[in-house]
Amino acid sequence: MKKIIYFGFVTLTATNSVFAEDKPQDLGIMNVVGVSPVGGSIDADKLPTTVQTVSSQQLEKAQTISLSEYINRFLGSAHVNEAQNNPLQPDISYRGFTASPLMGLPQGLSTYVNGVRFNEPFGDTVNWDLIPQGAIDSMALYSSNPVYGLNSLGGAIAIKTKTGFSSPKHQFEVYGGSFDRHSEELTSGWNNGTWGYFFDLHHFEEAGWRDFSPTKADQAFGTLSWRGDKGSLDLTLGANDNDMRGNGPTPIQLLAQNRKAVFTHPDQTITRMFFSELAGSYDVTDKIEVSGNTYFRQNRMKTFNGDNSDYSACDDDSGFLCGDETPVMNTNGDLISFDDSVNGATRNSSATQMRNKGGTLQTAFTGDLFKHENNLTVGASYDAAETHFASNTELGSLTATRGTIGSGIYVDESKVRLNATTETVGVFLTDTFSITDKLAATVAGRYNHISVDMKDQYINDAEKNLNGNHAFERLNPSAGLTYQLLKNVNVYGNYAESARAPTPMELSCADPEAPCKLPNSFLSDPPLQQVVAKTWEGGFRGNLNQLVDDGKWDWNLGFFHAINNNDIIFHRAGNIASQGYFSNVGQTRRYGVEAGTTINKESLFSAIDDWHFSAHYTYLNAQYLNGFDIQNPLNAEEIVQVQKGDKIPSIPEHIFKAALSVDLWKKASLGFDGMYNGNQIFRGDENNMTAPLSGYWVFNGTAEYKITKKFAVFGKVNNIFDTNYNTFGVYGQADEVLGAAYDDKRFVSPAAPRAGWIGVRLSL
Question: Which domains does the chain carry?
Fold first, then answer.
């Protein structure tokens, strides 16, 4: 096994995090949640929206490799598409809104780490590989809330990392097994009451279960903390060096012959992040707290994608290469001669360097107002991002295994050099007023002003088509009520608005007359309108603890209804699935019902057994409310009409998940979880003219035995019944590469077969 070569980072993650306290907590029974990205706190029963929480203990017990895997298996209304077929690059969807590392997807969830927004500034994408799971202390998944800023259309994911105060222990964990996967992680935390440190060093590597799919991730994260009588300071540092290959969807006919096969390769993503944050808080009085942070974040991303080609010999027998019957020029301004070296493949590469900096300052007031309990938080934030984007498309040919060989000839129209700067100013407020002991009202809002300045840096582009200045602003309000109907039954209802401004990536790829190839060839920037989501939700929640001696039984039943105005989607244009443009398509709607229950019962049958059960069901209806034109997924030369009521692709209508585990003698544990995702429409079939991707069941198991208090052996099996299922579908064209027999245009992302891993954990 390779060793991690990293120097130790020491940091701190102060009270600017999601939850109120810094000490270790079991979120399964905790009822205090955050009210803003940088802190404040409130009883969850007084928050008129849905919040799901996860603790580090729950993450460790589940043996998931990432936070996204845990969300997929255990949280309600959430599911994952493995569009990239890489365990560190999933698409997380919550109530039909997505947080994904893939450009081209309509992003709808905001993500925060210790109060710092982690959506990338260029495309609002989220790179889940940047933070090691072992450094996470807690996570909260919020439904729509404008206080969490841009892109919180469907909700927000707020992550708090560990400190020497929340995790004062030392631990080494190693495991290995299927797919040549192995992981080594060292964590250490300590404090003396005033100073503390925590660091996490993690190495992850695997060959991948599909062909040509190795992945390596080296991550480091840490905290250096100071705690005083009235204040705290936290310095956070993090870095990673990850090299991931996820070769994406494959023609369904090819998978029928070999489920490990890939279409074209490689599809490589390299991320190198550096993150630093200084955060702190100060208690001005017992009822007034000032807190804030300032940060600098840099992420350098490189991609390389071997793909089939949309270029061919010109029909006029001129001997040149053409695209859409137009001769293609190289970057020297010369026409390209057609020969075998430029026939059949393209090699698309990009380099994106993003630098973010900014900060947030807020004040929380917890004093009574008119002799009624009141919690008021006001704050302001400033974020500035600078992006340097470069992309190239090299012509080439395909190998026997559908890899690519470069010709050294680059296409002029696909060469992009773009600088983009984004500035965002936000002012927010949230106030919860207890009208009576049982009735509480919450009002909140955020004003955002976003400016985007883009400069075309390619010297051959005399018209500077990518140049543009854009400004967006909006005040997003929310208001809601909670009522303690019975001692153990709470009723809630809320209305919220949230907005997402078009990203520089979308603004650079919005012309139907000049489609781009994601994530490379941006060509022009017609104006796009910002997306505004208007969400209603309400329901009941409570407990049946009186029925469970020495235990806890929580339940929830709710309804949600969200309409996106001026929603942005990616229209496919051409024979390549990644070629197209962005546009506003009017209104889309996502509504549904969600229900869940969690039971923890000590000593069910005897004094030695403690049982844990959870279940979640979601009915989710996602539709277009306005018609628009799209390319026929079965015939690229034909335009078809999306009708009102057509379902939005890649969103299952039914989601069910359940988990059962037992702890024996406080030493051994066994866990079993299952998940069902219903049918979903193929991406590219927005008018629902073809059969959907089939739903699937999948089951997983875990086990752990504590040989001593400090030494444990654990293991897990994923996909116990070795089910062949697919999590994502899209339309493409395989016959030009594989031959005329491959005439089925469906491409799918297959899920991994049955696999197992075993490991050991040493704690001090």
Answer: 32-309+344-763 (2.40.170.20)
